[in-house]
């Protein structure tokens, strides 16, 4: 039987079904595992295999850096206890104009059942973030307010300098000129400076389904 080509709409639909399945399927192989990265990798591989059985799609690799390059979407799996992850740093511009791709984010809560020696992996939230909303919340909010208050290039440079954006003075000036003519969209991630960007997802979980470009794909039930 010929497989269907995966689309972003189908990705979100299958992420919803997959979240339901995972939440109701005890996982013996994760019993006693406390390493969040190991749990995340397990869930990522499981979802990828789930999709491979049903669809054709271009798979990500280290060269293109994201999980679904043909869709322009990366997959993230994170614990509800500290919903965050890292992503490759490309430039300071990502804080202002977004990562350059969308995100499908699975937020899980893991508990162990000692009697059955299995892990219970409940997906608490699955959220799709459109690429246009993947910039930093406070940075874009501040820049947009400056523009709305008749700010100029000097105001923008001063604001970005105060935010310690990882860019030199020439880069700040070039960004400010671009912002004057290309107002950034409001982003909803919290992006912390580091050798890799540190993405924090608390706000997208809170805003899912309430703001354009942030879709609540699945919301789990509390036990």
Low-confidence stretches: none
Radius of gyration, Cα only, in angstroms? 19 Å
User: Approximately how much helix is present in the residues?
Assistant: 25-40%
Distance between the termini: 39 Å
Largest sheet: 4 strands, mixed
Quick tags:
2 domains; 3-stranded antiparallel sheet; 7 helices; 9 strands; 35% helix
Architecture blueprint of SSEs:
Blueprint: E1 4-5, H1 8-23, H2 36-52, E2 55-56, E3 73-79, E4 84-87, H3 93-97, E5 102-113, E6 118-129, H4 137-148, H5 153-162, H6 169-181, E7 190-192, E8 197-200, H7 202-207, E9 214-219
Parallel strand pairs: 1-2, 3-5
Antiparallel strand pairs: 4-8, 5-6, 6-9, 7-8
Helix pairs in contact: 4-5, 5-6
What is this structure, in a nutshell?
The protein is α/β, with parallel strands linked by helices and 223 residues long.
Describe this protein's structure.
- This protein has about 220 residues and is of the alpha/beta class.
- It folds into two domains: about 5-90 and about 100-135 and about 190-220; about 140-180, no CATH class.
- About 35% of the residues lie in helices and about 25% in strands.
- It has seven helices and nine strands, in the order βααβββαββαααββαβ.
- It has helices at about 10-25, 35-50, 95, 135-150, 155-160, 170-180, 200-205; strands at about 5, 55, 75-80, 85, 100-115, 120-130, 190, 195-200, 215-220.
- A four-stranded mixed β-sheet has the order 3-5-6-9. It has a three-stranded antiparallel β-sheet with strand order 4-8-7, with no helix packed on it.
- The protein is elongated.
- The termini are far apart.
